[in-house]
Amino acid sequence: MKSKKLILISSCLIGISSSYKGKFNEKASDFFIPIMREAEKYGFIFIPVCPEQLGGLSTPREPSELLSNSEEIISGKGKILSKNGMDVTENFLRGGNEALKIADIFNIKTAIMKEKSPSCGKNNVYSGDFSGTLIKGMGITSFLLSGNGIKVYSDEEILLSCLVERMSITDLF
Q1: Mean pLDDT score, 71-92
Q2: Cα angle, residue 103 at apex, residues 141 and 75 outer, rounded to 5°
C-alpha cells in the first residue's frame, strides 16, 4: 500500500468560500486544485482548514488585523481587532489551536497557508491599522503550527517554486 502524505492547506486556496469576504481565492484555486489532483497520484492528500471559521467567526466577516505579534497575542499581551473594533482575539486563538489539533490528530507535518492573513500569514501580515500596509510577521495559526514542528509554506512560496523554479509540488514535500 502506498503511504499517504497529508498536508494541511488554507481552505480559501482550494475553492472553499471561507475568506473574510465570503469568497475563495480564484487565482490560487486555479493553481492549487490541479496541483492537488496531480499530487494525489503520488500519495498526497490535502486537508483544508479555515482557522477563523474553526474559531467561531462567520463567513463573511469583518476583516481583522493583529495589533501586535503572534507571540505577544498568544501570551495574552496583544489583541486582534476587526475593522469595526470588535476584539476577536479569542476566536483566532481557538481557531489556531483547532487547526493545530487537526494536524496533531492526523500527524500532519506540512502546511500551506494563505500569506497576509492574520491567521495563516507566514512571512507577512497587515500592520494593524487597516491601511493595507504589510509588515514582517506570522499569523496566529502559522505561528502555532511552526512552533509545534510543522513546516509551514505560504501559498506565495509554493507558487514561486512551482511556476518560476518549475518544481513539482511533489518535489517540495
Answers
A1: 98
A2: 35
Question: Tell me: the pLDDT tens digits for 3-15?
Answer: 789 999 999 999 9
Question: What is the predicted pLDDT for the residue at 2?
Answer: 59
Please answer whether residues 54 and 46 qualify as being in contact, where contact means their C-beta atoms are separated by less than 8 angstroms: no
Q: Is the dihedral of CA 6, 42, 12, 145 positive or negative?
A: positive
Per DSSP, the three-state class of 20 is coil
Distance of CA 54 to the CA centre of its chain: 12
DSSP label at residue 134: E
How far separated are the first and last CA of the chain, in Å rounded?
Answer: 19
Q: Return the SS3 of 116.
A: strand
Q: Say what the pTM is.
A: 0.93
Tell the residue number behind the cell numbers 518549475, with chain if given: 166
